[in-house]
Amino acid sequence: MASQTEPAPPVGTAVTLEPLVRRVLADNPSAFTLHGTQSYLVGAGRDVAVIDPGPDEAEHIDALIAAIGDARVVAICCTHTHRDHSPAAAPLKQRTGAPIIGCAALNLESIGPRGDAPFDPTYTPDRVLADGERLTGDGWTLTAVATPGHTSNHLCFALEESGALFTGDHVMGWSTTVVIPPDGDMGQYMASMELLHQREDKVYYPAHGAPVTNTRQLVRGMIGHRRQRERQILRQLQDGPKPIPAMVTAMYKGLDSRLVGAAGMSVLAHLTDLARRGEVVSTDDTWSLTN
């Protein structure tokens, strides 16, 4: 499900999105990152925080350092630990002396092939934030919002002064996120989406894609999209037991071949959630309705 789009931002250039927020794009475009990972600098005074420092690429780290300028980095914050989000945290800490604060460490192998970035084994936080914990700097306050689902350790960060929410990969500005078991959990993802729908954030700043201003409308649409996928899966199984590849072929017409594996993992995430609710059962590699 596509959402909002914008022209490709300039790579390595700090772009001001609002008085307290600047964005720096890393040069790592792909079928899963769109134009690349977007790192955010929060703060316009003597203190700044860096959210999702991105991949460990010298050019991107140099661009962040240039954007930071004479300010003091008080926190390097990661929404989660996929390799397009957190590996630059350690070298940025070396260069600035700032602590790594945010999501918990997590390093798991996927149960199957994946096209998105796997987990970052180098991530070592100095402080893990619980839901509702705050970070403060000169003129800004960030509050952690636990949003498990895409990964079990995923956090968003709310900028209290402006009503902005940094959504990492939980809500992206161009597509729905991938949910890949065993760590990705569709039930948790849907609960986290319902949580965001209850909030009144004015704008989302995702790690990939354009800022989102119709926040609750977009979340409502994404929830509806996932429920529609679930209904599609159940309709597929009404015709009899099926393996996941057959369901993907039937459900995802014209899908980019690079995304077939991720689509299969998304179907598996739905099936795992449905099985937990007692609606489907698996035998070997085939799934069927329980009734």
UniProtKB/TrEMBL annotation:
PANTHER family referenced in this protein's UniProt entry, alphabetically: ENDORIBONUCLEASE LACTB2
Any Pfam family matching the protein: Lactamase_B
Organism (species): Croceicoccus marinus
SUPFAM superfamilies per the UniProt record, alphabetical: Metallo-hydrolase/oxidoreductase
Molecular-function annotations in GO: hydrolase activity
Keywords: Hydrolase
Name assigned to this protein: MBL fold metallo-hydrolase
Domain Metallo-beta-lactamase: 36-208
Keyword match Membrane: no
Keyword Phosphoprotein carried by entry: no
